[in-house]
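User: Fold this, then the next.

Assistant: Folding the first:
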Amino acid sequence: MVTIEDLAARLEQVETQLALHRLAADYCIGADQEDLERFAGVWTDGALWDAAGDDLEDDEEHRFHGLEAILAAVRGQWATFSRMQHATTNHVVDRDTDDLDQAVGRCDVVVTVQLPDGRWVVGGGVYEDHYQRRDGVWRIASRTVRRPFDLAPLDGHGGARVPAPDLDTPRVSD
């Protein structure tokens, strides 16, 4: 028989999963929409954003320690790239069974940025996260980029091209 306590524990687990998935979304939205308040809200004060990647183990230039350094880094991205678009998927989260205020997660990311010359670069990788809950609020305590990649800049005009419809092809409704 399922007890109220069992249901409460299951509900709390679902709420935690949703809150952690929301963090991933708020990170992307904050970065892409230049929403500093939203972006800042996903991090703990002492957070680490390790964007050095696997190949740059000794690269301290791309490791940002503390909220102020993280915010300075994203402002630098905004000054460099006129547009960014992050998309995360395959987000998996596991809570620490010994400390329910701790969790780890990972998600795949694809990032598209517009270079100053108008060309676009597509990149991505894997985010490995450590989350902490303080005063009932989940935040990212560390985010590490793994397996980063960048494709060569894409030539183009900054807009999608949609081909004209083929009027000779019968439609399903015909």
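Now the next one, as you asked:
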Amino acid sequence: MGLLCPLEGTYGAPPVPPTGSPGAVEAALGALAALFPAGLFGDLLPPLVLRHQLYSIVSDRTAVDRHLDRLRADGRIRLLHVGLGTDTLGVVSMDSYREKVGPPPGQWDSPTPHKGQWDPPTPPIRDNGTPQPPHKG
């Protein structure tokens, strides 16, 4: 199953994975991304899924947070603070992000970026959904 693909389990596709599994989180991401009204924005924005939308589909919030953190660490998604609240996070596929937004200023002429090059460091998410403070060692 690919990231941000249509929800499986309908029309003869394989069944939806059990809630709380990484597959369930990715299926929910795909279903919600497919609902993003790209035409409203002139197809200029990548599909954006809000973390609380995932919570409404996948009941295990800890599993959602852990899988999002893993996807972010792997360079497959970007987590964005969208300004709707202190803990409101948007989730965007890095492929879609690169396609619609492009690299940061000053990197237009650079070679193909390596995994995670455009991602700013984002702290891991605690089980209660708040960002973890940086490790001081």
